[in-house]
Each structure stands twice: as C-alpha cells, then as structure tokens.
Specification:
Blueprint (H helix, E strand, L loop, with lengths): L5 E11 L5 H11 L4 E10 L4 E6 L9 E5 L4 E11 L5 E11 L2 E6 L6 E14 L3 E4 L6 E4 L2
Antiparallel strand pairs: 1-8, 2-5, 2-8, 3-4, 5-6, 6-7, 9-10
Amino acid sequence: MKYSEISTGRVFVLRLEAGEVLHETVEEFSRIHKIRAATLTAVGGIGPGSKLTVGPKLPVEEGVIPLIHELNAPHELTASGTLFEDEDGNPMMHMHGSAGREGNAVTGCLRTGVIAWLVLEVVITELVGNVPIRKKDPGTGMKILNID
C-alpha cells in the first residue's frame, strides 16, 4: 500500500443540466476552477443512452477490454469517486455508481458517458497538498493513480 496525506480545500455543488455528460462536465469545471484533485459524489437522474463500464470482457488474459452497458430509459443514480490530474495536467474523473429503475440495478464505472436527466447533483470536495497524479500503466494501458 502507498499513501499520501492531503487536506480538503474548497467545496463546490453542481447541478448538471439535462443532456450534459457527467465526466465531461466535471472535468471541464475542474479545469476552469483549477481543481487538481477531489473526491466526488453524485445523486440524481441519468437518461437513456447513458453508458456504464460493467467489467472487462472475459477472458482477461487476452487484454483488458471494457464491457459496456447502455441504459434504455431514465434511471436513478448514486455514485462516488475521485478526480486527479494526469501527467499532462488534465483532470480525470474516476467514479463508480449504481443506477436503478423499477427494482433493477446496474453498477459500474461512469466514465463511459453518463447523461444528466432532469436533476443530477454533484458535490466536489477539493483535495490539496501533495496530491498524486494518474499515469499510464504499461500493463493495462489505462491511466491509474500513481502514489510515490
């Protein structure tokens, strides 16, 4: 295990407008407000066409290929995650959540393209100090959190 001790900074509350894409909106907001790292929570409605990564295709020995699930109707969402800059200084959201409708639920990563529907609220709690960054992992090809 590696760790970095950091503190909290500013706190922002966002209400996304219908049709906005969650990760694009959070990352652009973070870029504008110079947020290098944060914890994130989201709650509200997401619309049809929203996509969640629900795991890797099997077998993983052939490489990590995302398995995508697309919603065909509005769903209720609850999610939490983090935001850290990559090696180029771009904020990258990593958020997982569960979306439900009529007693059925799907859980996954929301970076694939979750679309706000009616009301989608996000709380961004900035992290300040010696914050880690996301670096490309040669094994997976994904940008993962790197703590020195």
